[in-house]
């Protein structure tokens, strides 16, 4: 009888040990995935900050005005060049 109990307890002990090894493997795997995700999040934060900087630089009024003048040949609007239309004229 005691031999059967020892055999059952040995099988339970081996099962628990295998379960522990599997749990540790899963924990390591999840930790590696977490590190990868955190690294990717840091990289995305860096890219986001760079894009915000680029947007603020590219959207400045002086830069837009300079490109309009240089590339499109546009000039400043002056009162001498302004034409007013009234409703009755054709």
Account of the 3D structure:
Pfam families: FtsL (PF04999). This is Cell division protein FtsL. Part of a complex composed of FtsB, FtsL and FtsQ. The protein is mostly helical and 90 residues long. The chain has one domain. The chain is built from two helices and no strands. The chain has helices at 2-58, 61-72. The radius of gyration is 36 Å and the shape is rod-shaped. The termini are far apart.
Mean pLDDT: 90
| End-to-end CA span | 116 Å
**Which residues sit in consecutive blocks of at least 5 with pLDDT less than 50?**
none
Shape: rod-shaped
Largest sheet: none
Report strand %: under 5%
Overall domain count: 1
List the total number of helices: 2
- Rg: 36 Å
What is the number of strand segments? 0
Secondary structural class: mainly alpha
- Quaternary structure state of the chains depicted: single chain
H/E element sequence: HH
Amount of helix? over 70%
């Amino acid at each position: 009888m005691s031999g059967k109990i020892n055999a059952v307890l040995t099988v339970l002990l081996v099962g628990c040990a295998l379960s522990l090894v599997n749990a540790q493997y899963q924990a390591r795997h999840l930790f590696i995935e977490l590190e990868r995700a955190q690294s990717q999040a840091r990289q995305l934060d860096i890219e986001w900050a760079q894009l915000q900087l680029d947007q603020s630089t590219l959207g400045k009024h002086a830069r837009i005005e300079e490109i309009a003048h240089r590339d499109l040949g546009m000039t400043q609007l002056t009162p001498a060049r302004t034409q007013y239309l009234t409703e009755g004229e054709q």
